[in-house]
């Protein structure tokens, strides 16, 4: 049996409202043995223990990223990264240098570009042809809802002037109707299908490496909305005892019939790997102007192809899919960006709950690990004021990504105008009784939770703009933002009884920081460093 561990000499941010900030914490057999004053904790431990002097620094619960594309992020670490590249010319040069290092028949892959930074319209296939040396190229925009491809990629996918737009997507075209190199939403799928798949071993190795990076920033749990290939890789790591991250893995919508036939229910699994919700896409994104809106986007060109955005499913199909899932005890996780998309999803969840009173309803209390996993909306980026209260009323989790708000300020102001007062409305949602669960949406944005925490409490970019914060009435306190990265996700995964806060009996997943968190200015949170990360009291990252 491992020796007890005592951590004292600093501030323990328990996120447990009955304890608050404690002086000391003791760990035994992977769980919290005692937490409170120095005297209370020392009275609870054995005579023989290991002592960790916090030296005035803080401890917090292990952080959960409640929305991260794990395999995608891991694989993209080896591809072109155009995040924050401020000029089109610089982006082309980065692509050129990367392509020149590849074999002649390799695909040029990357992500992260944002044409709003380039002060120009969408990039074109012919421009990409100039720097890829005849290799096919597929480079996703930062929101992943559109892709920039070259003519070699279009030819591989047999996309031509005569190709029809697929359901739920579109092919960008020039004035003559020829494909121009932009693919929106499901318009990307034909090219994606041509890209060679990494081997299972490559996927597993990439995930393992990426998890180690996340430990260095205090992350101990993930909620992953990805496909079977990611689940297969994670399950393989789990099976050989090499999964050093707690994972709630969601199910792709096209697999619903298989899940129902198998009798699969949300919550199956253990504290390391669990089945979560059915992932559904309701609309597109702000950046690609495909979010589904109640009224048209502001400031779009007169010939914009979809002024109200793009609903990915029609209303009837969305209602039917959500009803079928909930009727079979499979909770839903629905991507909704625009106010129309969010309203429609809330309507569909409400209808499904009313139509299936015999099914278990989401429990937001302190039930067992096997408690029903709540339904959730991902992103909820802009809401009509009438719909904010409905999240709490329906028990729908608002799973949001604070760093989206600060990255999207310019676009939101331009495309949503005054509607932005209800965009990324964390304070309003919380006040209405909704549960917030924060994440990153990596690789759309940085997965660093400390950048997210800073965004949540400042609503400012890293350069401290805009002064005072963007719609600062929606800012959260640091404690509230931490709650949304710890307790909120634990409620969201139905695991609030075992993790989320540093409470007696819960797993000892915790993070030791390099300073006293109470003394860190809000605009300096992104610079906080992690000294040590523990999962079940065992160190997985140090120094």
TrEMBL record:
Residues 51-540 form the Amidohydrolase domain. It comes from the Bacteria. PANTHER family: IMIDAZOLONEPROPIONASE (PTHR22642), PROTEIN LONG AFTER FAR-RED 3 (PTHR22642:SF2). This is N-substituted formamide deformylase. The gene is nfdA.
């Amino acid at each position: 049996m491992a020796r007890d561990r005592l951590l004292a000499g600093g501030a323990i941010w328990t996120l447990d409202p009955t304890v608050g900030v404690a002086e000391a914490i003791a760990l035994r057999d992977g769980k919290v043995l005692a937490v409170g004053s120095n005297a209370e904790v020392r009275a609870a431990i054995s005579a023989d223990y290991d002592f960790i002097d916090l030296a005035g620094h803080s401890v917090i619960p292990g952080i959960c990223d409640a929305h991260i594309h794990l395999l995608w992020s891991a694989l993209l670490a080896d591809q072109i990264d155009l995040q924050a590249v401020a000029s089109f010319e610089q982006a082309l040069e980065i692509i050129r240098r990367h392509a020149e290092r590849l074999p002649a028949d390799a695909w040029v892959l990357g992500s992260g570009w944002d044409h709003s930074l380039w002060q120009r319209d969408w990039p074109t296939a012919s421009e990409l042809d100039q720097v890829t040396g005849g290799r096919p190229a597929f480079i996703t925009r930062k929101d992943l809802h559109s892709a920039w491809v070259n003519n070699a990629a279009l030819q591989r996918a047999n996309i031509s002037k005569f190709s029809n737009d697929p359901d739920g997507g579109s092919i960008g075209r020039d004035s003559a109707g020829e494909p121009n190199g932009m693919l929106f939403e499901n318009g990307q799928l034909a090219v994606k299908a041509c890209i060679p798949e990494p081997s299972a071993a490559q996927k597993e190795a990439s995930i393992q490496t990426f998890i180690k990076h996340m430990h260095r920033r205090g992350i101990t749990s993930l909620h992953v909305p990805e496909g079977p290939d990611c689940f297969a890789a994670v399950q393989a790591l789990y099976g050989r005892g090499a999964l050093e991250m707690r994972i709630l893995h969601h199910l792709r919508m096209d697999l619903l019939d298989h899940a129902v036939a198998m009798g699969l229910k949300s919550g199956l699994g253990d504290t390391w790997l669990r089945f979560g919700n059915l992932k559904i896409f309701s609309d597109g994104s702000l950046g690609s102007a495909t979010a589904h809106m109640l009224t048209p986007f502001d400031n779009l060109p007169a010939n914009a192809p979809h002024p109200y955005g793009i609903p990915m499913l029609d209303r009837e199909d969305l209602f039917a899919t959500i009803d079928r899932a909930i009727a079979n005890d499979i909770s839903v996780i629905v991507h909704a960006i625009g106010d129309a998309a969010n309203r429609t999803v809330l309507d569909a969840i409400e209808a499904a709950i009313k139509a299936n009173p015999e099914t278990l309803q989401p429990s937001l209390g302190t039930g067992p690990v096997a408690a029903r996993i709540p339904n959730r909306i991902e992103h909820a980026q802009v809401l009509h004021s009438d719909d904010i209260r409905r999240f709490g009323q329906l028990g729908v989790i608002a799973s949001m990504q604070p760093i989206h708000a600060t990255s999207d300020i310019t676009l939101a102001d331009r495309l949503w105008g005054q509607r932005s007062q209800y965009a990324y409305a964390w304070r309003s949602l919380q006040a209405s009784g909704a549960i917030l669960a924060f994440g990153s949406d990596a690789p759309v944005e940085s997965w660093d939770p400390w950048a997210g925490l800073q965004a949540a409490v400042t609503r400012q970019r890293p350069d401290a703009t805009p002064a005072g914060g963007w719609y600062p009435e929606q800012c959260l306190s640091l404690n509230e933002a931490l709650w949304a990265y710890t307790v909120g996700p634990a409620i969201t995964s139905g695991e609030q009884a075992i993790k989320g806060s540093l409470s007696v009996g819960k797993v000892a997943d915790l993070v030791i920081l390099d300073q006293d968190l109470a003394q860190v200015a809000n605009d300096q949170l992104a610079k906080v460093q992690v000294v040590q990360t523990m999962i079940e009291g065992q160190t997985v990252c140090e120094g």
